[in-house]
Amino acid sequence: MQSATPAITLAELNPSDVDATYRKLNLRILPFLFICYVLGFIDRVNISFAHLEFSADIGLSEAAYGFGVGLFFVGYILFEVPSNLCLQRFGARVTISRIMILWG
After folding, report:
1. What pTM did the predictor assign?
2. What region does 61 belong to: left with phi over 0, alpha with psi -120 to 50, or beta?
3. Where are the domains of the chain?
């Protein structure tokens, strides 16, 4: 069965159209990725701020802090794969809603 629209080969593309497409993608995707990177960095920095408060308040040792952070990141990595499989199976709306509800 033939497709309704013919396939376009790379030789048929106009270079100015390709440049316009990349420019449009860069203007839409890069700011979002930058914001995600900054928020992820702030999240990791918050762990170090928590260490300063915990060590002063409850006498948390360096070894206990390192163990706790290690457990946190191991758990994060172990649950990331099933979460991405759920994302693929159920879609972004359901997965993000699930994450918001479970983390809340």
Report:
1. 0.46
2. beta
3. 12-60, 61-104
